[in-house]
Each structure stands twice: as structure tokens, then as C-alpha cells.
Amino acid sequence: MTTFDEREKGFETAFARDQDMAFRITARRNRLVGTWAAGLMKLTPAETDAYAKAVVQADFEEAGDEDVIRKLLGDLVSANVDIDEARVRVALDQQSIEARRQLLELK
Asked: The domain spanning residue 33 has which CATH number?
């Protein structure tokens, strides 16, 4: 194997590892923000767990965060929580930071 091949393999490995970490951070973030929203909706612990899982599933509808934001905002408004899209986006950003912190602590 040449040096070039070794470097290419190293870059491919690093890319795959970075993509895996990004996926894990997003999934954890969605679970955390689902738990946050469930708290605002005053759900029971069992309902909270189910809701957090539903938020994680919602992220598979389309690329990006819009599907998650749409679900959270729709559910919160339906539950008569006084909230706007900006606050949901802030919560998403905050939970993304927390998710990254949690996963880095696990390593």
C-alpha cells in the first residue's frame, strides 16, 4: 500500500467516524429536546419517554431540522403552551450543545 493509499484510507476512516458522531449528537439532541418539550406539556414519565422517541423518529422525515421544529412547535401549540418558533430553535441549539457534551464525556 502506498503512502497516498494510506492517507486516503485514513481520511475515509475519519470521515466515517465524524459522520457517525454527528448522527449520534443529532439523535441525542432530539431526545433531549423532546424531553424538554414534554416537560412544558406536563407529560407523565412514560409519555415523556414515548414523546422523546417520537421526536427522534420525526427527524427521519426530511433532511435538516425543519421536520423536528415543525413537530415540536405543532405539539406544543396543540397542548396550549405559549411558545414561538424562535424559542424552539433556541432550545434545539442548547440541546445540541448538551448532546455533544454528553457524548464527549462518554469517550
From this structure: 1.10.790.20
**Whole-Å CA distances, 36 to 2, 20, 51, 82:** 51, 24, 10, 14
Phi and psi (nearest 5°) for 57?
A: -65, -35
Please say whether the beta carbons of 88 and 76 come within 8 A.
yes
Total count of domains within the chain? 1
The answer to whether 79 and 71 have CB atoms below 8 angstroms apart is no
Q: Nearest to residue 68, comparing CAs of 24, 34, 25, 23? A: 34
- 53 within 8 A of 34, measured Cβ to Cβ: yes
* pTM for this predicted structure: 0.85
DSSP string, 30-69: HHHHHHHHHHHTT--HHHHHHHHHHHHHHTTSSSSSHHHH
6-25: pLDDT as tens digits: 777 777 877 888 788 889 99
